[in-house]
Amino acid sequence: MKAYSLDLRQKIIDTYFEGGISQRQLAKRFRVALSFVEKLLKQYRETGSIAPLVRTQQTPTKLKEEQLSVLAAIVEANNDATLEELRTLLHRQTGVLIGRSTVDRMLQKLNLTVKKNTTRHRKTERTSAKTTGRVLAAGSRYLGKRSDLH
């Protein structure tokens, strides 16, 4: 989510210090969360700054390189598995339990997809069933004509 503008932050601070308005009313008036107003005021009191805090350290990935390679191997062996099934298989093989959304993020990191195209599969099944039926019908007609020749 994008940080609120400095202009909005300054308006909230100015309105609060003019007095006569609660934090809850401020949040309602400026259509922001109460928790945002609380954090903004706390930050202003402690640092004197209203600038959005910059994230200094990226959260490390949940899986190490060897666990990512295990996940890639699992996907290769079970390319039709759901995220939940992949999660369970990864837990069995590595002992690391992660959420379905984390499995999805790790697959994106590996540039792997497990999306199923059920429409294409259904269409292929219907087409192959129709084709099989036609072949059988044509074959039986052919056999019928052939038996007439004998």
Textual characterization of the structure:
It is a single chain. Helix 2 (about 25-30) packs across helix 3 and helix 5 packs across helix 6 (about 100-110). This protein is mainly α. It has 7 helices and no strands. Among the domains are: about 5-45; about 65-110.
Question: Which helices and strands, and how do they pair?
Answer:
Elements: H1 6-18, H2 23-30, H3 34-47, H4 65-77, H5 83-94, H6 100-109, H7 118-149
* Order of secondary-structure elements: HHHHHHH
- What is the CA-based Rg, rounded? 31 Å
Distance between the termini: 80 Å
Mean pLDDT, rounded to whole units? 81
Total number of strands: 0
| Percent helix | 55-70%
What percentage of amino acids are in beta strands?
A: under 5%
> What structural class do helix, strand and pairing data support?
mainly alpha
List segments where confidence is low: pLDDT < 50 over at least 5 consecutive residues: none
Which labels suit this protein?
7 helices; mainly alpha; 68% helix; 150 residues
Q: Short summary of the structure?
A:
The protein has 150 residues and is mainly alpha-helical.
